[in-house]
């Protein structure tokens, strides 16, 4: 019985038997709650992601790497080499959520990290480009398995008051990884041998092995355990994580009662049913457009080359300084994630990103950017600003928001599909960017500016605020901001044609939850008759199916 599962006497008996205290995680137990420790530990998966992003752009730029791989690579081959890790992550990411729903979050994160490490080892020992690309393909498969499940795990173990900040940890660690990756390559670039590019991959092997190992010591997600009907284990997990038991009783009951009967594949089907589609499409759109917002950080050295910073060491240092600036601005963004509104941050950030891209494209199109010119330094500053604004807004808000708006019974499946879309769009950007830059100095900037503006338009219409709500409360109150506005406009038009008397008694309660959105039919009542007299456009605006005679 779910009610008995979270009852105070039941928990008290467990405490008296010392079952809860004996299962505490000993690491940092006195310094911070264990749910924070678990979130930090798993966020090293984000570090791996960022480290590869920061290092690969510098590595393909190194003469030592080009020499080992057989000479200078074309723009297309460079794009293939860099983007393979994203391409092979698509299919694993798509099924990782389904497998995590069946076997548990940690049981997917650990093997995914090991697979990533195997790929990094192959890259570190490569003597030919095909072996290097195969290594990146294997790493991509591992990353597709573990990365999305890290976000889901943290969202499920974090209490309401800290969920935004902890859910931002993987992205914050990814930004940190970009910074570390750049400077790891700067520190090894002085090596005359192939160790200059091999040593950074040794670090990847070590971190991925550590991530897999730490999963052995962390408790499974209590929300997942509750959904599996494993109540006693869920209680133990809650205690080990130092989770607020009052919040668990308040929020988990509905989850257990409403969702525990769903099969794993049903969660995928639910994603695209009527009551779930708006949230699913919004989450997928946000995760995809984050990657299509601008030129990926992996090509920062190329961007600085294009702006006139031509020497390898100078462009790498400039890229490293840019990554430091991104990291520094991520700190307040991370710390204030629970204070800033998700909607405001996403919309304002998108406008700024679009404006910066438009400015850079205009400078290149006008021919003002030449080596050592004032315009070239404006471009350099714009690259810095773009990365900083992205990390403070879209980089943090996007993944948090996508995890928050998905219902618990589709959260893992939705994040899997979202991560697959993210990998796909990231692969497209990584593949076409060097080709676009080679074909046109300004075309890529105008393209990404337009995509950012389009994203802002969609967010203005469809993105509600979620800050300060529990995951379960978000599902009960989700509505699109513009929907009410359009409905009111249609209603005023209908009243102007039908007269105030026709609609005087018209009062339909607002849709509050998933079940109401799924199927709503009004029976032949006076209220239904009144609605039936309204124009079809009014009923469509309400989203109702009216049966009235």
From TrEMBL:
Residues 38-467 form the Major facilitator superfamily (MFS) profile domain. This is Major facilitator superfamily (MFS) profile domain-containing protein. One of its GO terms (cellular component) is membrane. The lineage of its organism: Eukaryota, Fungi, Dikarya, Ascomycota, Pezizomycotina. PROSITE patterns: MFS, SUGAR_TRANSPORT_1, SUGAR_TRANSPORT_2. It holds the Pfam family Sugar_tr. It is found in: Membrane. InterPro entries: MFS_dom, MFS_sugar_transport-like, MFS_Sugar_Transporters, MFS_trans_sf, Sugar/inositol_transpt, Sugar_transporter_CS. It is a multi-pass membrane protein. Belongs to the major facilitator superfamily. Sugar transporter (TC 2.A.1.1) family. The chain crosses the membrane at residues 75-96, 108-126, 132-154, 166-189, 201-218, 281-304, 316-337, 349-369, 375-397, 417-436, 442-461. Its main location: membrane. Keywords: Membrane, Transmembrane, Transmembrane helix, Transport. One of its GO terms (molecular function) is carbohydrate:proton symporter activity.
